[in-house]
Amino acid sequence: MGKQKKNRQGADKAFQKKKVKVGKKLPKSMNTTNTSFKTRTIQIIQQLKKDEGEATTKRKVNIKELLSQCQHYNVTVRLGAAKGLKELLLISEETVIAYLGLIVDRAGSLMTDKDCHVREAVLKLFQALFEKVPANCMSPFFPVLCAHLCCAMTHINGEIQQDSLSMFDLLLETYPQLVIAGSNQLMSNFVEQISKKKFKNVKGDRLKSNDLKFTLSVTPDSRLSSQKWQAKVLTRLNKLLSIVLKPENLKSDERNKLEHDFTSGSRFSVPFQSYVKDQWSTPGFVIKTASNASNSSGILEDASSIKQLVFNLFPLLLQCWVEAHDPEKTEGSLLYPDAISVRTTVLQITLLLIEYGARNADSLDVPWKKWLTEQYGASFENYFMSCFPYEVLQNKKLLKKQKQTQNTVSPETLNLAVISVMIKFIKCPIEFLLQQSWVQTILKYVRGALKSPSLSLPVKKHLLQVLNELIYAVRFHEQEALLNESFVRFENVHALSQEKRMYINFFSSVIFSQSERSKLSTPLIHFLESLPELLLRIGSANTDISTQVVSVIKEAISSNCTPVIKKWQDYVNDIFNVENGVFINSSTFVRKSLIEIFYWLHDVSPTNLCVLANLIENDGLEVEHGLYLIQVLHQRYVSKVREGVIIDKMADHLGFLLLVMSGSDTCNNNSLMDTSQGQITPIDWSKGDNFEKQLKLNNLICQVIATDLNSDQALVKDILWSHLEKKIQNGDQVNVQIVLSFMTILEHFYDNEYFDDVSINLLIDLASDLTAIRNGSFGISVHVDLVNNLFKMLEKIVCGQLIEKFVERIISRILVSEPKNENSVSLVQMLAHVTHQNSVQVYILENEPSRRQLFIDHFQKLVKCVQEKFPGSTSEPWWAQFLYFLELLK
Amino acid sequence: MSAPREVLFTSDASGQLWNSCVWDFHTGTSLMQYRGGSSGSHSLCLLGDDYLVGGGGQKSLVNVWELQRKDQNQLKIILPGKVNCICASPDGNYCIFGIAEKIYIWQTCSGNLLKVISRHYLDVKCIKFTDDGSHFISGGEDNLVIVWCLARTISSTDFPLSKPEPKYVWSGHSLPIRDVHVGSGGVRARIISSSLDQTCKLWDMATGELLCSFIFDTPIISVSMDSAEMRIFAGSTNGNIFCVNLYGEPIRTERHIGNTAGEGINIFKGHSSQVNCLCVSMDGTVLASGSDDSTVKLWDIHSGQCVRTLDHKGAVTNAFISLTPYNVLNPDSKPFLHVQQFKRHLHTTCVEMRIRNNKRKLDDSNERALLELMHSQSSVPSENENDINAVQEVVELKSKVSKLKSVNKELYEYSVKKIVNKKK
Fold this sequence. Notes:
Structural class of chain A: mainly alpha
Oligomer: heterodimer
Shape of chain A: flat
Number of helices of chain B: 4
CATH architecture of chain B: 7 Propeller
Strand order of the largest sheet of chain A: 1-2
CATH topology of chain B: Methylamine Dehydrogenase, Chain H
InterPro entries (chain A): ARM-like (IPR011989), ARM-type_fold (IPR016024), Ipi1_N (IPR024679), TPR_TEX10 (IPR057949)
Distance between the termini of chain B: 77 Å
Number of helices of chain A: 40
Protein name (chain A): Pre-rRNA-processing protein Ipi1 N-terminal domain-containing protein
Mean pLDDT of chain A: 72
Radius of gyration of chain A: 48 Å
Family (chain A): Belongs to the IPI1/TEX10 family.
Strand order of the largest sheet of chain B: 16-17-18-19-23
Structural class of chain B: alpha+beta
Pfam family, one (chain A): TPR_TEX10
Shape of chain B: elongated
Helix content of chain A: 55-70%
Largest sheet of chain A: 2 strands, parallel
Number of strands of chain B: 29
Radius of gyration of chain B: 27 Å
Largest interface: A-B, 35 and 43 residues
Low-confidence stretches of chain A: 197-213, 249-268, 292-299, 401-406, 666-680
Mean pLDDT of chain B: 83
Domain TEX10-like TPR repeats (chain A): 526-887
């Protein structure tokens, strides 16, 4: 009980009731939760999760905001927008390109912004944008861009106008094709930029005339002088026109390419006509009706509109020409440098338009040249030719400046431009009319220019272009004089210079554009005649020029230009010389061309052939070229023969072939001929290195002789064998080459009639040597392939009708030989080898009994002899085989 | 003996037995022979279905035989120079001769010389027509292959000095051209040319581009393709005939073909001297080749075996296979075309064009077919539901016609009575 009490007392303590008193704070109960907390701010510098859809600039402005900012009234905001767009473009291309239409619209409107910094920023933006966007993506928005550009071009503010030019430059560079499509609109604006400015025009009264006559405008209050302004606009106009008129050029170039350049394309191409290919690149169709045909967007979509264009532009250009220079200050022909550049541009534009008209003359309603001469011939003559050879007036003040700006135009360029325009107005040389007086001035200038050596390279190029046109527009004797001058110049130019190549190009184009190539004028003939010598002089110093020269020569020869053929014949020996000729050092293409030229030569002399044979022998010449040369010469011979057989030619040709076959180094060495007749001389095995080449040549020659000279077979064989005999009996050592040719001839043309003692001796010598070499008991090491080849040939030859003679002679040789002679042993082995051949066995076994007996007698003698003299060899396996065959025979 | 579908025409350089001969190449029997002179290479051709023209060699004389007559006095035509090659248009209306470096075009029926073209610089070696006769191709010693539009070249006859412009000038070869073969397809045909520079080049006529060049190791004298253009055949100077498949991967623009048969290349060996002419039969199974070794060989293309050898007396200059002309088999027939002596001077006034149906039978059948077609179409509406309407319409129209006729008659009578009689 007491224990219980104690417990109760403890419990009482725990459950003691606290007294709550009025006025005192209520104590907190033990089980309450503390709900208070502390706060502190955290700065999050970077968001972990990116905003996936939206790319923004550093200022966290996305594209939509940027675009709306473009229209903001505040300049800085607009500037920021333009810069921001560019920044965004660099960060994420895709978002910007997705909004391409909007950007072009909004940013395009900034082109006419008052603030120059904004315009600058927009230009940079477009520069970056155009690099990224391909032309076909831009094409739907291009009209919008064009419209903004036109706004800028026609803006009141002169500065905006100026900036629009650089924008236009950008477009021309990146989207030339699109500019062409929208050129109509741009063009008229362009013209207006320098001509029709109503409110600033001093000569305001002229504007009333409504017939589209443009007059030059002057803007006295602008910062730039009107001349400079004109120069700027004119250069752009030149660029635009040259691009607009370019596609035609390209097409004609391609067609030329088709004619000439076939060797280059190595990849497979599916042939489609160019207009089909054009359709692939620009899908869709242009629907034209009668009503909308007139307002097409390009200036020159319709070729006949060129007339209107010329009508508008030419007076303007002439005014520019006049204004460029003040005749009161200096003499008419002395010009300041900037005047020269303006005038050159004027002429370039004029030339472009004239040429375009001439190209499309068919679609015009008037004969172009006549119309042009009537309209402008007199005025052009008046303006351009009045003080024709223009010179530069060096102003001392300007001199320093010019060194800084390097793109000055030389007076020669201007003069040449004048000439190239005026050439179009020269009357046709056939007409027996009075030539215009200024033609002589032009001719005088051109001749002077040809003589002066100090012209720069592009000017020289230009000069030749002009010359190329000029010679067709003047009379014959003048043409010849011009060609003469240029030929003199050509002669004096250094052989390896760029200019030489230009002249070669010029002359060859003149020559090959003439239809009658047998009636060339004298300077052209001189040119052709000088080429072989030039080739010799160049040698292998410059492969480009020598290739060009060779191709010109070849084209001339293959198209029946007789002078060059004759001249070439004189140089054949030098060019094909082994030691220092051009041929051996030139490239594969040149070599082939040089070989091919032989086909058309009228006459190839024996000395030429000797040189060629030497060349083929030379180690420096690949087999392929040697084979090709032989084939070309042979084809030439065959075609000559078809015209009429000449026995001399045949002898020459055959002689050449044999010379190649047997080697030319002993060809003049006939004096020793009879000293050692019948003597057996050992074969010289030392020169067997390039036997493969020799073998190929020999095979080809034999084939050629067999196929094409069959009709005179008896004669051919006679020559062949007598030649061979001479070689073998020559007393010198018989070298590998002769052996090879001997064997090939035997293989192809064996004839019992001509086969004599000397030949069989050689054959037996060869047989013994070969067997020895195969056994490894020969002193000199010889190439394995050579031996194998020869052995095969020997087998083939011996296993024919020759077998009887061969066996007889070989046995008689063995019988007289001394004991233990290595040579004889190998002979015996050879004989055994031969008799082991299937065809030989059949031949002997199936012969008549009497002849079989003959063989048996021979063989028995041999067996007896061998057993006496060379007992060592009776243990060899081939001896057993031989004995077995003998048994079979018996 | 049933008539063969195709026959082989051959000629040799000697002309001892005959100038040219017609063979049934399946049996090797000769069907017809034409005597007189000999024909040079590329100078034997059919003129329509009626004549055989052959000549050249070293002479300026051309023989024209009527195909149906065996022993006859053929028409002999003397030309201004040595004939290098002859080609007639497929319909036989025009004959083109290569004489020295010039090309002469004659109209066969009038004998007028329509045009002389001098564009080649050296001898013209070969002229071939496209199968539709619209263009012809000439190849010469000056390495050029030139494509001409026939209509354009002869349309300028009124201006004898004007120079016709070629359609294409292909200058890809580096040595003289020896043979040209034109595939089927008219203006879109493919053309293959062979040259002494050891190559054959395949050209596309639609665009003028070079499609492929085949490089051999011997000069190629003759070239041909089968009608499906599956293979080309090239006859070389050493007597080998290369058969190269045009199909198969990989496709290359340059193919080097060596001296050994390999994948896609088969070599027919048998001739001992250069192969002058090649021709494939219509079905592409038989190849005829004529060589300088005085034989014509017939090859089975698929196996590459020589099936038959026809011996000749001299180097074979021409061998071509053609559909059997009707006149060869029928000695009683008369030639349809009209051939006159060729005139020596250029024809300058307007050309009288004789338009005559060459293939009358064919046209008759065409007409019949057309009529049948019209009948069938007119019978279509009568089978429809509203055929009654149609009948009614016909009746109405007929009544209208009769009304109009009666009015016309009245008018006529009135005029005759009132106007004409008044005058009397």
